[in-house]
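Record Small ribosomal subunit protein eS6, 212 aa.
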Amino acid sequence: MPDFKLVISDPSSTSLKIENVKVKVSDKIQAQNGEKEGKTLPIAKLNEKTKQNLNVDLFITLEITKQEGDKVSKVKSHFKVETDSSVPDNEVWIGQEASEKFGSQEFEAKAYRTRAFQLTVDQNKSSLIGRKIGEVVDFGALGIPLKLKITGGSDNSGFAMRPDVGGGVKKRLLISGPPGYHPEEDGERRRKTVRGNLVVQDVVQVNTVILR
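=>
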C-alpha cells in the first residue's frame, strides 16, 4: 500500500509569537531514523526560558530568507522540541543533517510555534485505515504521544473527503461549499465528485488537528 501524507495542524498556534534566534549545529543531536524520508521531524534543543518566550511546547519552526541574485526565497523547517538547560538563552541547537537545508552551520533565523507540518506515514503501520472524519486516533510515530482528530483529506485523484458522505466511496453531488467546492458567489452550487468520510486505501492525504 502507498504511504499517506499526514497533515498535522496545531489549533493552539493561532496567535504566533515570532522571535529572532541564533541557530547552531550541535554534535549532541543525531539525525532521526526516517528524517530524510519525511517520516519524522528532526530535533531542536532550546532551554526552558526560550521555550516560554516563544510560546512553543512540542514543535518549533525555523525560517530564514535567502537571496540569490534577484531571487528572494524563504527556507523553513519544522522540528520536534527538546528542552536542554545547557543551551544559552535565545539560541536553538539543531543537528548537522537538519542544517543542510539552510546551507549553514550557524545563522540567524525567525523562530515560532509550528502551525502545521506534514509527515509521510506507512499505511501498513498506520491506525488511520477504517477511521472516519471526526474520530480521534493515538499517534506515536514522533516519539511523542499525540491525540489527533481527523478533519478531512483527499484521495489519489484529488477528490476531497466530506464528513456528510458516509463510507469510502466516491460520489457526484450537488454541493454549495467546501470541502470539494469553493463557490465564487453566495448561494452558488455545483455538481462535484467527492470522497466519503472513511479513510480507505485510495486516500493519500489525511488532515488532522492536535487535541490537548
